[in-house]
Amino acid sequence: MTDVTGENQKRSATVIGxxxxxxxxxxxxxxxxxxxxxxxxxxxxxxxxxxxxxCIWIIARGGSLLNALRQPLGAWVLGVFGLFGxxxxxxxxxANAPAVEASLIAYLWPLFIVLFSALLPGxxxxxxxxxxxxxxxxxxxxxxxxxxxxxxxxxxxxGYGAAVICSVLWSGFSVLNRRYRxxxxxxxxGFCAGAAIxxxxxxxxxxxxxxxxxxxxxxxxxxxLGPVGAAFFVWDFGTKHGDIQILGVAAYGAPLLSTxxxxxxxxxxxxxxxxxGCILIVAGAVLASKELLFRKSHNLAPKT
Length: 304
Description:
Helix content is 75%, strand content 0%. By secondary structure, it is an all-alpha fold. The protein has one domain. The longest helix is centred in the C-terminal third of the chain and has 28 residues, at 214-241. The chain is globular. The model is unreliable at 296-304 (pLDDT under 50).
């Protein structure tokens, strides 16, 4: 009974963590409205909104902000620099390399999560996890590149290097987060505040403030509540208590859902390349999740 309960809890945590993928799929659609806002200004505003609203949520539910913030130094370092470091190196990569190539290198992090998970106690890396992650990566390559040939020019080594650091940072954060599974999800409000402060500091040193209009403020609010807000809370819970390999492969669902949304809103076309990319991502996720799906169907089978 205890094993069954543990499996059900792990499955529930995996589903909760996967909500982050759905929220991240809104990123491309919402950022089309704020393309004129400097990146670090945008990041700092979004993390500020996430921090403020999460604090209000904690207080409204009768929680203690002091208890949420009273966490080990290691958890703070991992949380703040995981959130901010990923965005910092991602924008450095985009500023110093072609966007498609830099984005694809940065998007190695789901596969890295699957591979790094083998280092966690109690986790076993199976062939279908690696193959599923690789198939998902192939699908993401098609979606991001739209089937065009890729060219990795050594002249953009700085950007490519930053993209590699970006992918290693986020995958490392996601896997190492399991070490702090005792740290409550409410602590993410503090991590968001820390990331917002670092974002503002970087903005003031490298960018010029651009005042958002009403539509842009609404988009920023949506980003801060969803893809750059609630997504990190559910991802934190999922990586601490769920199936890390399945979450890693499921992360490739973000470009899939994002592409579907862009097509639905008339901002992208459903080309054959896009359709094949979507099929590959779904196939990779199903393959990586085959044990979980098999256990579920086995448990539901009638007993004789």
